[in-house]
Amino acid sequence: MMQAINPKSLGAPKGYANGMLAPAGGRLLFVAGQVGWGPGQKVVDGGFVPQFEQALKNVLAVVEAAGGKTEHVGRLTIYVVAKRQYKAEQKAVGEAYRNVMGKHFPAMALVEIKSLLDPDALVEIEATAVIP
Question: What is the spatial distance between Cα 74 and Cα 22, in angstroms, rounded to a whole number?
Fold first, then answer.
């Protein structure tokens, strides 16, 4: 099981961990950036939040295919094309996150970028997991 590392000097994080310590002997899984593709590799309808949730589901599909579970994800990097949109929908994003990840909050980074390879994609998520 991963152990969250949150030094008191950094304050209490909300919705993420400052660091995640993996157990000895685990296998590293690097998950490529996943967009909100549903069946047929088409971006799901509905805008940012449905794409965010689907991208997280796609990340977990890779983790599970490797024999892992949600709690084995140690890091997420979230790329968004519009930080304002993310912030405006933050409450719904949090609900979508918990629908997929539960109360597991790994180390995370959010990066605003100019565009993604799929012109319809609004978010892409990559991950690192440690599979026991």
Answer: 8
Q: What is the pLDDT of residues 2-34, one digit of tens each?
A: 899 999 999 999 899 999 999 899 999 999 999
Helix (H/G/I), strand (E/B), else coil: 77: strand
Give the C-alpha separation, 63 to 131, whole Å: 8
Q: What is the CATH classification number for the domain harbouring 114?
A: 3.30.1330.40
Q: Retrieve residue 86's tokens.
A: 């993310």
Are 50 and 31 in contact by the 8 Å Cβ rule? The answer is no
Backbone angles phi, psi at 50, to 5 degrees: -60, -35
Give the model's pLDDT for residue 58.
Answer: 97
Distance from C-alpha of 45 to C-alpha of 25, rounded to nearest angstrom: 41
Supply the range of the domain harboring residue 100. Answer: 3-131
Say yes or no to pLDDT of 39 above 90: no
Unique residue bearing structure tokens 């390879």: 117
